[in-house]
Structures are given as structure tokens and as C-alpha cells.
Amino acid sequence: MADQAPPFSRIVANLPAAVPFVPPEELERKTGVKVRLRLGANESSFGMSPLAREAMENSLGENHLYGDALSLDLKMELATRHGIATEMITVAGGIDELLGWIARVFLNPGDPVTASLGSYPTFHYHVEGFGGRLHKVPYRGGKNDLDALAETARNTGSRIVYLANPDNPTGTWFTAAELKEFRRQLPADCLLLLDEAYLEFAPAAAHLPLDPADPGVIRTRTFSKAYGMAGLRIGYAFAQREIITAFDKIRNHFGVSRIAQIGALAALQDERFLQHVVEEVAAGRREYETLAETLGFAAYPSATNFVAIDTGDADRAAAIQDALWQRGVFIRVPGVAPLNRCLRVSVGTPGERQEFARILRKVMAEL
Ligand SMILES: *Cc1c(COP(=O)(O)O)cnc(C)c1O
């Protein structure tokens, strides 16, 4: 018998051993702190639609069955709402899973990819996991630098450009007109991966109209954020038919649970609830902006369910994050400069916001 595990693939053997995502549960176990305010993962404090909840409760007895491997009911509902064919939609266990499919479908080992430095890390993680080579473009003035992203994509011959609109971790957004111009600047054979995890929170001007004639765009959406269903793991993507067919060659066909399909379908029916969440979140963002101002900080303009508060200094942000954690407040500080000066705080309920403001003020007075 061999005394070592069989060799890993070259790609995996060369990946760093670090675990990229440390959840608050693990931080609790490691530090002995109990989380009181969970505002670091942009989960929805407003929960999910009561219609979705009821539909899922009524379906508990069906869960010895797999879900429909095609998620056809959900696709048909999405197709009707967006005026496109069901063949242009795929459903997955959240955007995070979709990002993996996209890297796998479009990349050969060594292929170049462009994304912003410090942008959503799960995309970077999947690109590296499939052997792609990331070219990272710094944020400029607190926003994705569209001109530099397009230039890097052209200069490197990138296969994929990743852009979150609205963005995480800044919360900022671009208009449809700006996105169209960006698309025009990209090489024709480069995929634009538009991650729209927060689109429901964004003003109408940020909604790029679907263009079925443009084969080079994938748009990813999720039930995790505005719909408040992060733990159910369900999201979807719009893309050209050939791309959806390519996903079918490699995807985990039973990866979406039946209960998630049922919950998502019901959630789409409850537009009033979604509207309520969007309004509550907008009010919460304004509160955070005011809070930031009173502490002498600037808040990035946000079209998401979180606000990035710029403390002006990375060490200060780290010290505040630490002091907040000691008091049971979970927020995030982005890992890369210059965004590592920011506290990224999810919009909580009015009660959570009040508690957060009270604790943050206390921390600032003590530091
Ligand atoms: C939260 C988030 C996701 C994750 O979505 P899931 O559907 O829960 O996997 C993807 N992209 C961005 C930019 C996010 O902030």
C-alpha cells in the first residue's frame, strides 16, 4: 500500500491551501464570541415572502423526491416575466455555483480572465480552480474602472470579463448606457459575465435590457439577496441558447433541491413583499449614510442591501472590525486596498440598525 495520497491534478496541487471563506459560525467557534448582529454576508434581515414560506411548508412531505432536473416550472415563470425563451435560462444552486460552471465551460488552463482587484472573490476562486489566469484591475474612485477593464481584456485576450452590477463590495452601479458602451469596448469573442445578484435593489437605469441577439453576455441572478432565501441555494442565469446547452453538458443535474424550486417559484409571485424589502433596504441605506457622516466617514453610494463605509484607513477599519466582533457584531472589511479601509455592513431591520449604530458609536468613542 502507498503511504501517500495519489497525486492531485496539477491545477489543484498548485492552489493555495488557505480556505477562502471563513463563515461567522467558524469565527464563533474560534473566538468563543456569539454573534448578536449578523450583518457581514448581505443576507436579508427581512426574511422571505410568507407565500414562499407557506409553499415550502406545504411541500415538506415531498422531499424524499429529487427536484425537477430542468427546473422547468421556474424557468417558464422567469421566461414569461422577462419575455424570453425558457431555453435561454438555467437554474443552479446559487450564483456561486453558476460562476463555477462558467469558468469550466469557457476556460482552458492558462486562459486569461479580467476582473476588478478586490471584486467578488468566489469568481476569482472558480477561475483559479479551473486553471484560468486572472488579470486584476484596481477600482478607481470607488467604482469598477470600466475603461481599464476593457483595455485589460483587449490587451490580454481575455476569455471572460467579470463585472458585478450593482457591485460587491462597493455597492456602486452603472447605467445601462454605460454598460452598453463597456460591452462595445470588449473584444467580440470575450464573454461579459454580468453578476446581477443585487439588481432588484437598483434603480431602473441600472437594468440593462436583455438583448437576445448578443451572444456574448451571461447575466446571473439569485434568490439569496432581495428574496431572502440564501440558505436555500437557488439562482439562475440568462444567456444565449448555445451557452445554456453547454451548461447542460457539465452541470450537477439534481443540484437544486425540490423545496428551493418550490420556494423560488412562490417568491416570484409576491411582488408586494419584494417591493417592501426594497423600500426598507433603501431607508436603511440612508440611515447608514447619516450614521457614517456623523462619525466623520464617507459612505459609498449603494444600490444594494449593504453600505461600504470608508473609514479612510485600513488599520482603523481592521481595529473597528475587531472591536465590533468582540461585541458580537459581524461585518466585513474587504481584503484588498484601497477597499480595505471600508466597513461593509448589511442593511438590518430598524432594530438591528439602531443596535449597530449604538455599538459602532461606542466603539468609535473608545478607540
Ligand atoms: C451574494 C453574492 C453572490 C452569491 O449568490 P448566491 O446565489 O447566494 O450564490 C454572487 N455574486 C455577488 C456579487 C454576491 O454579492
UniProtKB/TrEMBL annotation:
<keyword id="KW-0368">Histidine biosynthesis</keyword>
<dbReference type="InterPro" id="IPR015422">
    <property type="entry name" value="PyrdxlP-dep_Trfase_small"/>
</dbReference>
<dbReference type="Pfam" id="PF00155">
    <property type="entry name" value="Aminotran_1_2"/>
</dbReference>
<dbReference type="InterPro" id="IPR015421">
    <property type="entry name" value="PyrdxlP-dep_Trfase_major"/>
</dbReference>
<dbReference type="InterPro" id="IPR050106">
    <property type="entry name" value="HistidinolP_aminotransfase"/>
</dbReference>
<keyword id="KW-0808">Transferase</keyword>
<dbReference type="InterPro" id="IPR001917">
    <property type="entry name" value="Aminotrans_II_pyridoxalP_BS"/>
</dbReference>
<comment type="similarity">
    <text>Belongs to the class-II pyridoxal-phosphate-dependent aminotransferase family.</text>
</comment>
<comment type="pathway">
    <text>Amino-acid biosynthesis; L-histidine biosynthesis; L-histidine from 5-phospho-alpha-D-ribose 1-diphosphate: step 7/9.</text>
</comment>
<dbReference type="GO" id="GO:0000105">
    <property type="term" value="P:L-histidine biosynthetic process"/>
</dbReference>
<dbReference type="GO" id="GO:0004400">
    <property type="term" value="F:histidinol-phosphate transaminase activity"/>
</dbReference>
<keyword id="KW-0028">Amino-acid biosynthesis</keyword>
<dbReference type="GO" id="GO:0030170">
    <property type="term" value="F:pyridoxal phosphate binding"/>
</dbReference>
<protein>
    <recommendedName>
        <fullName>histidinol-phosphate transaminase</fullName>
        <ecNumber>2.6.1.9</ecNumber>
    </recommendedName>
</protein>
<keyword id="KW-0032">Aminotransferase</keyword>
<keyword id="KW-0663">Pyridoxal phosphate</keyword>
<dbReference type="InterPro" id="IPR015424">
    <property type="entry name" value="PyrdxlP-dep_Trfase"/>
</dbReference>
<dbReference type="InterPro" id="IPR004839">
    <property type="entry name" value="Aminotransferase_I/II_large"/>
</dbReference>
<feature type="domain" description="Aminotransferase class I/classII large">
    <location>
        <begin position="37"/>
        <end position="358"/>
    </location>
</feature>
